[in-house]
Automatic annotation (TrEMBL):
<keyword id="KW-0378">Hydrolase</keyword>
<dbReference type="InterPro" id="IPR020602">
    <property type="entry name" value="GTP_CycHdrlase_I_dom"/>
</dbReference>
<dbReference type="GO" id="GO:0005525">
    <property type="term" value="F:GTP binding"/>
</dbReference>
<feature type="binding site">
    <location>
        <position position="189"/>
    </location>
    <ligand>
        <name>Zn(2+)</name>
    </ligand>
</feature>
<keyword id="KW-0342">GTP-binding</keyword>
<dbReference type="InterPro" id="IPR043133">
    <property type="entry name" value="GTP-CH-I_C/QueF"/>
</dbReference>
<dbReference type="GO" id="GO:0008270">
    <property type="term" value="F:zinc ion binding"/>
</dbReference>
<dbReference type="GO" id="GO:0046654">
    <property type="term" value="P:tetrahydrofolate biosynthetic process"/>
</dbReference>
<feature type="binding site">
    <location>
        <position position="118"/>
    </location>
    <ligand>
        <name>Zn(2+)</name>
    </ligand>
</feature>
<keyword id="KW-0479">Metal-binding</keyword>
<dbReference type="InterPro" id="IPR043134">
    <property type="entry name" value="GTP-CH-I_N"/>
</dbReference>
<feature type="domain" description="GTP cyclohydrolase I">
    <location>
        <begin position="51"/>
        <end position="224"/>
    </location>
</feature>
<keyword id="KW-0547">Nucleotide-binding</keyword>
<dbReference type="GO" id="GO:0006729">
    <property type="term" value="P:tetrahydrobiopterin biosynthetic process"/>
</dbReference>
<feature type="binding site">
    <location>
        <position position="121"/>
    </location>
    <ligand>
        <name>Zn(2+)</name>
    </ligand>
</feature>
<keyword id="KW-0862">Zinc</keyword>
<protein>
    <recommendedName>
        <fullName>GTP cyclohydrolase 1</fullName>
        <ecNumber>3.5.4.16</ecNumber>
    </recommendedName>
</protein>
Length: 226
C-alpha cells in the first residue's frame, strides 16, 4: 500500500480529549469546544484527505475516473449539506408575527420530511415529523417550522435527541411551552444491515405544556393520523 500522506491541517489531539458531558446539557449534540476552529473550507480539505484514506484502505483504485472525485464529494456533502445543522450559524431565523387575531387553537404542521443520519453508523434516517403549537402572543411563519425540523435533522443524530432538540427550539422561538413533536422514521442501520429488518419503524414524541393533557394530545394525534 502507498505510504499515507498527512493532511495540511494537523489534528489537535489535546482537544480530542475534552469530555463533552462536562460542557453540554443532555439534549445538546456533543460538540467539542473548538468545533468551529476550522473554517468550512478547511474541514472539507481535511475530510477529503481522510475519506481518501478510507477508500484507499478498502483497496479502491482512486485513479478510476468515477472514484477520483468521491473523497471531495463526500467532504462537501458532509460539511455543506447533510451535517450543516451542526453549525449554529446555519440555524434558521424564525420571524415572529404578533398574534393579532388571537388564534388560540392548535396549529399542526404535519408530514415534514426528515433526512437525518444515524450517529452510530452514519447512514440515513428517513421519516416524517409532525409538530404543533398553541400560540400565545406570537405566531410564526409556517415554513419556519419545517426549517427548524430540517436544521436539527442535518446532524448525526439519535431520534430521541432530534425530537427533544426540535421541541426545545420551538418552545424558545415561540415563547410558549405548548408544543408537540412526533417523529416516525426508518433507520437504514436497522433496515439495510445488522438486524436487516425492513418492516419496523421508530416513533418518538415530546408533549409539553397543554399537550400533556389528554384532550389536546388526542386532538393532535387525530390530526396526524392517516
Ligand atoms: N436509541 C437509539 N438507538 C439507535 C438509533 N439509531 C440507531 N440506533 C441503535 O444504535 C445501536 C448501536 O448499537 P451497537 O451494538 O453498538 O451497534 P451494532 O453492533 O452495529 O448493532 P446492530 O445494529 O444491532 O448490528 C443499534 O442498536 C442501533 O439500532 C436511534 O435513533 N436511537
Ligand atoms: Zn445506526
Amino acid at each position: 500500500m502507498d505510504k499515507p500522506l498527512t493532511p495540511n491541517i494537523p489534528l489537535d489531539l489535546e482537544s480530542e480529549e475534552t469530555d463533552p458531558i462536562s460542557v453540554h446539557s443532555a439534549i445538546e449534540t456533543p460538540l467539542r469546544p473548538d468545533a468551529f476552529a476550522l473554517s468550512d473550507a478547511e474541514k472539507i480539505e481535511r475530510i477529503t484527505f481522510y475519506f481518501r484514506e478510507i477508500m484507499h484502505t478498502l483497496g479502491l483504485d482512486l485513479t478510476d475516473d468515477s472514484l477520483q472525485g468521491t473523497p471531495h464529494r463526500v467532504a462537501k456533502m458532509y460539511v455543506n449539506e447533510v451535517f450543516r445543522g451542526l453549525n449554529p450559524e446555519n440555524k434558521p431565523h424564525a420571524k415572529l408575527f404578533e398574534n393579532r387575531y388571537a388564534y388560540n387553537q392548535m396549529l399542526v404542521e404535519r408530514d415534514i420530511t426528515i433526512y437525518s443520519y444515524c450517529e452510530h453508523h452514519f447512514v440515513p434516517i428517513i421519516g416524517k415529523a409532525h409538530v404543533a403549537y398553541m400560540p400565545e402572543k406570537n405566531v410564526v411563519g409556517l415554513s419556519k417550522l419545517n426549517r427548524i425540523v430540517q436544521y436539527f435533522a442535518k446532524r448525526p443524530q439519535v431520534q430521541e435527541r432530534l425530537t427533544m432538540q426540535i421541541a426545545d427550539e420551538l418552545k424558545q422561538v415561540l415563547h410558549t411551552q405548548n408544543v408537540a413533536v412526533y417523529i416516525e422514521a426508518d433507520h437504514l442501520c436497522v433496515m439495510s444491515r445488522g438486524v436487516n429488518d425492513v418492516g419496523s419503524s421508530t416513533i418518538t414524541t415530546e408533549f409539553s405544556g397543554l399537550f400533556q393533557e389528554d384532550k389536546y394530545r388526542q386532538e393532535f394525534l387525530q390530526y396526524i393520523r392517516k
